[in-house]
Specification:
about 210 residues; 6 strands; alpha/beta; Rossmann fold; Arc Repressor Mutant, subunit A
Length: about 210
C-alpha cells in the first residue's frame, strides 16, 4: 500500500481525493493538510511514501514547502498536483526536486499511474505538458526575460498583480493577509530579480512579459 500525504488548501477537494482510492488501487491518502507548515510534524508521526502537493496555497506555496522539506532534511518523492500548466511553474518545481507533475483534471487511472511511478522514484508528467517538458529537457528554456520571470514565487506574482491595480502597501497587505513589512520585502526582492528600479518600471515590465 502506497501511503500518501495530500497537501492542498481546499479541504473539500482533499477529502474528495481521499475517498477516491480503494484497497484495490494499492494507494491510501492517510493524511490531508491544508497547511504546508505542518508537514514536518506529520512526517515525524506518520509513515509516508509520496507527498501529493499543490502549488497555489496561501500560507506557504508548493515551492516553499519543497524548500522547507529540504531544510528539514526530508527526502520523499513529491508529485505536484495543480491546475497550472505554464512552464514557469513546471520548471520551478522540477528545479526544487519534484519527481512528477500532474494536472487536477487528470483521470483516476492517470493519477494512480503517477503516484505509483513517483513512489518508485520514477518521473511522471501529465500528457498535456509533455511537449513543454521535452522542450525544457532539450534546453529550450526561453529568453533571458523568461528566465527572470521563472525566478518569481507565486506570492511575488500575486503582489505584482496587486501593485498593477494601483494598490499601496497597506492595501496589498490587507488583501493578502500579510504585513506591510512583508509586502515591502517582497517588492524589493521582485525588483531585484527582474532588474527594475521602481514600481512603475516593474509594472511595465510585467505587462510586457505577460506576468499580469
Amino acid at each position: 500500500m502506497i501511503k500518501v500525504l495530500l497537501v492542498d488548501d481546499h479541504q473539500l477537494f482533499g477529502e474528495g481525493m481521499r475517498s477516491m482510492f480503494t484497497a484495490e488501487d494499492g494507494i491510501a491518502i492517510v493524511k490531508v493538510t491544508t497547511n504546508g507548515h505542518q508537514i514536518p510534524t506529520i512526517l515525524k508521526d506518520l509513515e509516508i511514501d509520496v507527498i501529493l502537493l499543490d502549488i497555489s496555497m496561501p500560507q506557504i506555496d508548493g515551492i516553499g514547502v519543497m524548500e522547507l522539506l529540504k531544510n528539514e532534511g526530508f527526502d520523499l518523492p513529491v508529485l505536484m498536483l495543480t491546475m497550472h500548466k505554464e512552464m514557469k511553474y513546471i520548471r520551478r518545481t522540477l528545479e526544487k526536486g519534484a519527481q512528477g507533475y500532474i494536472l487536477k483534471d487528470a483521470s483516476k487511472p492517470e493519477l494512480v499511474e503517477a503516484i505509483q511511478k513517483v513512489s518508485r522514484r520514477e518521473n511522471y508528467f501529465h500528457p498535456k505538458i509533455n511537449n513543454q517538458i521535452f522542450d525544457y529537457l532539450r534546453g529550450g528554456k526561453g529568453s533571458n526575460a523568461a528566465d527572470l520571470i521563472n525566478e518569481l514565487s507565486e506570492r511575488e506574482i500575486e503582489i505584482i498583480g496587486c501593485l498593477a491595480k494601483g494598490m499601496n502597501g497597506r492595501a496589498v497587505a490587507e488583501a493578502l493577509f500579510i504585513s506591510e513589512h512583508t509586502v515591502k520585502t517582497h517588492r524589493r526582492n521582485i525588483m531585484h530579480k527582474l532588474g527594475t528600479k521602481n514600481t512603475a518600471e516593474l509594472i511595465t515590465f510585467s505587462i510586457e512579459q505577460g506576468i499580469i
